[in-house]
Amino acid sequence: MLYGSEEDRGLIERFIMYPMLLTIFDRDLRIIQAVPLKLKRPYILLIEKIMDDISMELHETRKQMLSRKIKVMDGKRLDDLTEYEIFIRGYREVMRFPNVHLRNKAETLIEHFLLKKYPST
Asked: Domain named CARD: which ranges (predicted)?
């Protein structure tokens, strides 16, 4: 049974995805810093700005979840799924995401953050 509203589900998804994005961007930032590029600084500044934006959005998401009494327990990887235990206003629910879905969603969100300032036409 689904206890949360569509808005609650959006908060939960952002709460799950944003830390993944921060991990991905942090890893990519370290790679860019190690690669012999002629002009590294613009790439580093872009990634750091995006990470700051994601961190601020994650902070807002956490505040909204707290006010709506939503709690997400750390995910458990099960073969090709990741399972999250969710508590929504006292009700327990288990959400399972295929890892492929999480990967595709992360890719979509990365594109969103990269193209936020310069959307494609």
From this structure: 51-121
Q: What string of pLDDT tens digits covers the 121 residues of the chain? A: 456 788 888 999 999 999 999 999 999 999 999 999 899 999 999 999 999 999 999 999 999 999 999 999 988 888 899 999 999 988 999 989 999 999 999 999 999 998 886 555 4
| Number of helices and strands in the chain (H, E) | 3, 4
Tokens of 81: 């799924």
Per DSSP, what are the bridge partners of residue 87? 71, 92
Q: Residues with Cβ < 8 Å from 93, sequence gap 6 or more?
A: 1, 2, 3, 4, 85, 86, 87
Residues 6+ positions from 18 with CB-CB distance below 8 Å: 54, 57, 58, 61
User: Domain limits of the chain?
Assistant: 6-114
